[in-house]
Sequence to fold (89 residues):
Amino acid sequence: MTYAVLRSSGMRPVGALVLSGVFPAFGVLLGVARDRRVDVFGVLVLVGIAVGTVLDLASGNARLALLEGSVPTAVFGAVCIGSLWTAGR
Fold:
């Protein structure tokens, strides 16, 4: 939603993607401070946002950053499917 609002206000795609990552990052850090424990999935999302931000800023190509976001999801899905094969052992 943040991305859509920023884009509709005239911001370029790369800047909108970078700024839209601020809210999830803040949420993860707030959760760590409040609960005094690290949410593994939250940290993975935060790392993905950081990598996407670096790619955005380095390349200036918003599509590259969006494509990069699908790679961790695919790897996580493969790990989940792989865990099904080892669950019965």
In short: Residues 2-86 form one domain. DSSP finds five helices and no strands in the chain. The two ends are 44 Å apart (CA to CA).
